[in-house]
């Protein structure tokens, strides 16, 4: 069975949303992280979801509800409140949250993450493909639940599809490919 | 009355326009029954399961217009499972056999398959008008059949249906020889249509008075069509997406100026606020304006528009009009009879768009107001009392406070007194929907004062069985009662069982009625169908012979001459 612990043994204490055991199961190249992560966005959405639980209330015809760009309403709420996503880092016991909308591109994002996790003295975050000498790879979970490497797609596409970030130990990231056998 | 020749009696009956009156005269004597049934042209069936289709056709062989309603009203809010019933096919089949002279068919909340539409298209040589409201089950293929085979079709009116898109060809199926259309409404279709075919159709139908386009129609196309239909009375604009600098926009303004007969406007799904100026020239003539699908138009632009609409009788808007905007409506639209204010922010993420103030403003300016649907975040007793005083002519009053069970925010009291004032003042009230925090008291008032009430909708209200009993014992003209999430149980249900035969239907969901209570009702009243509708998830548990103490999730009771229906799905148990 695969070992979920990071090399410093703190993997267990990593805080994640999701059912127990799922992080063990999802160690293949294509990951499906648990659904609960949707709530990493706004308080707003959480209370909306709770209120939406009452079936058939408010009494509005489904036709009307469906023809509304409801996504537009949510998107506006999001835009107003920022694009907050959780950031987890391997070996760090707690997560952070950053607002993606304040960054202009990948460079600023890396700098921001560096600053945020500096105190863990974990060295500079890696560039693409976890090249030589790098310790960490920045990955993210996209809308489909897949684990992706940050930096492949245009910035706008990235921020619209990124649901959470994970700073992964370089050794694991590289090791992903070998585990597919 | 037997000394009157039948032709004279028939002629007298011609003056009776309401179904109720005709139903009543047909019970006077056998001769009148006979004359009435042979001369009835317009038949209305309020509940498709109350009577067998064949029986209707047999009784009214001269029928020309048929209206049938299917699912209960709460189906609009997803409270009725998808395949509960309400199929149109048996009606169309029976009409094809018994009344081939049928000219008009109106269906509401029914399941209409493509097969039924195809049968309809082929069975009635004089067919003129098809109106489908809140129906589902058909695709654009069914519409193609109608377009192809209904020669002389005058009206095709699709309102808020769920239609599956199977391509844009259906509209091209209207033959070149079709010039008879007077009304075409396909606003609810999601897919594209063949714009060229539509424009040609519109151009050759010289009697076209009502045209409601769907979102896929471009403004360029709209401008071209308007240029060919200067006599149009009702228009649904489609998405209305246009750059105000574009040539199409100029052509549009020009076309609108020529439409001097335009009285009703709707659509505007994606309109940019700036482009509303294009309709300012028509606004002074408008009697009907529906902006409730246009979330992009905020309060200030709405207000600018409405200031031109002083003849408005019917207005549907979103709550982004805000209380201030409603005050402008109140001062501008003195002829207003119907107002509907829909929520733009369904899950109430905070922006309190309209409150009691807006409603009070409306009531003080629009004394002719008789129909209201108002979604708001809060309401006070004081406001309702004022509204009741200002507008005693309400026939339909539906108030929806978005937060269920919310009290008067000023006094923290229930809204019993406010609604009490409404029913006391509005003696012609036929339809009422309640919301907010309400005790049994409001039902006491309703039972006592709402003598003409025909339809009552209750949600999250009342304290005890007494509430429901007040209504059942009090409202003489009650026809439809629908209740959800309220503490009414078997005692209330069984208190006045005879009442249900005087009503069309009773719906109760998430209340305290038990299976035993439903069984008792069914046993006492054989001419009622008592349907227990189980939630899908629970239906596995239900197989275990549930005890009579088990609370029923959803119950639908209706009077019927047809007995238990044979098309009920597994999760519906008819007792």
TrEMBL record, chain A:
Which PROSITE patterns does the entry link to? PB1
What keywords tag this UniProt record? Auxin signaling pathway, Nucleus, Repressor, Transcription, Transcription regulation
Instruction: Note the SUPFAM superfamilies from the entry.
Output: CAD & PB1 domains (SSF54277)
Pfam families with a match to the protein in the record = AUX_IAA (PF02309)
Q: Which InterPro entries match?
A: AUX/IAA_dom, AUX_IAA, PB1-like
Instruction: Enumerate the residue ranges of region (Disordered).
Output: 1-50
Q: GO biological process: what's one of them?
A: auxin-activated signaling pathway
Domain PB1 positions:
82-170
Q: Where in the cell is it found?
A: Nucleus
Q: Reply yes or no: does the keyword Disulfide bond apply.
A: no
Q: Name one GO cellular component term.
A: nucleus
Task: Indicate where this protein is primarily found.
Answer: nucleus
Q: How does it assemble?
A: Homodimers and heterodimers.
Question: Could you tell me what this protein does?
Answer: Aux/IAA proteins are short-lived transcriptional factors that function as repressors of early auxin response genes at low auxin concentrations.
Q: Which family does it belong to?
A: Belongs to the Aux/IAA family.
What protein name applies here? Auxin-responsive protein
From TrEMBL, chain B:
Q: Which GO terms describe its cellular component?
A: nucleus; SCF ubiquitin ligase complex
Question: Which keywords belong to this entry?
Answer: Auxin signaling pathway, Nucleus, Ubl conjugation pathway
Where would I find the F-box domain in this sequence? 4-45
> Entry's InterPro entries?
COI1_F-box (IPR041567), F-box-like_dom_sf (IPR036047), F-box_dom (IPR001810), Leu-rich_rpt_Cys-con_subtyp (IPR006553), LRR_dom_sf (IPR032675), Transp_inhibit (IPR041101)
Q: Which GO terms describe its biological process?
A: auxin-activated signaling pathway; pollen maturation; SCF-dependent proteasomal ubiquitin-dependent protein catabolic process
CDD domains documented for this protein: F-box_AtTIR1-like
Give GO MF terms, alphabetically: auxin binding
Q: Identify the pathway.
A: Protein modification; protein ubiquitination
The subcellular location is:
Nucleus
A UniProt-annotated Pfam family: F-box_5
Subunit info here reads: Part of a SCF (SKP1-cullin-F-box) protein ligase complex. May interact with auxin and auxin-responsive proteins.
What is the protein's given name?
(wild Malaysian banana) hypothetical protein
| Species lineage | Eukaryota, Viridiplantae, Streptophyta, Embryophyta, Tracheophyta
